Amino acid sequence: MLDILKKKIVTAFITFFVSIPAYWIIFPDSRGNLFITLVLIIGLFFGSILSLITEFIFSRYKIQNLTINYLIHILLGILLDFIFIDNGPKLKIFLVIVFPVLTVYFIIYRIIDKKSSH
After folding, report:
1. Measured distance CA(44)–CA(113) in Å, rounded
2. Cα angle 71, 20, 51; round to 5
3. 63-76, pLDDT tens digit by residue?
4. pTM for the complete prediction?
5. CA–CA separation, 103 vs 49, rounded Å?
6. Packed helices 99-117 and 66-84: angle between N→C axes, nearest 10 degrees
7. Among 118, 104, 95, 114, CA closest to 21
């Protein structure tokens, strides 16, 4: 469990430091935008916790299906989007911020997990 926790923390930091410059390049007006930075920090924190719980359940029941794991991460992203965004375009925020970040997080974690298992 501690090994999974370390990998999730490293993944969250890498994802954060990849996502911020990516959003600055894609959306030049977002430089210094506190909203996007806060969404990323809060989303990565709570997303990492939910991802850790999901990973623990998957390892406990020996579920190895990557597609199901990715779909659960998408559902968790939608859940976090609807919990934390009261007013505003929830779908737009999900498609522009949450979905790309959770996809990068998922890919980075799979790479770290694969490299550490060898």
Report:
1. 18
2. 30
3. 888 899 899 989 98
4. 0.83
5. 16
6. 140
7. 104
